[in-house]
Amino acid sequence: MKSSWKQSIYLQRERLAQLLHEPLARLAALCAPAWGDRQALDDVLRAGFGGIPHCTYIYCVGFDGIQICDNVGVEGLAPEHFGRDRSRRPYMQEAVPAWGFLLSDAYISLLKQRPSLTALQIVRNEQGKPLGYLGADFDLRDLPVTAELYEEPGHWRQVKGDPSIRGLVFEQCRAESALDRSMAKSLSILEELLTHRGVFQCVIHFASSQATIWTLDDPFRYRILDQEALADPDICLVYPVRSYPEDAEVPQEAVARILEHLRALRTADEQIYLRMSSINLFNGMVSLTFSCDGTHYLRHDEFLDKESPFWFGGPAGA
Question: What's the pTM value of the predicted model, to 2 decimals?
Answer without folding.
Answer: 0.67
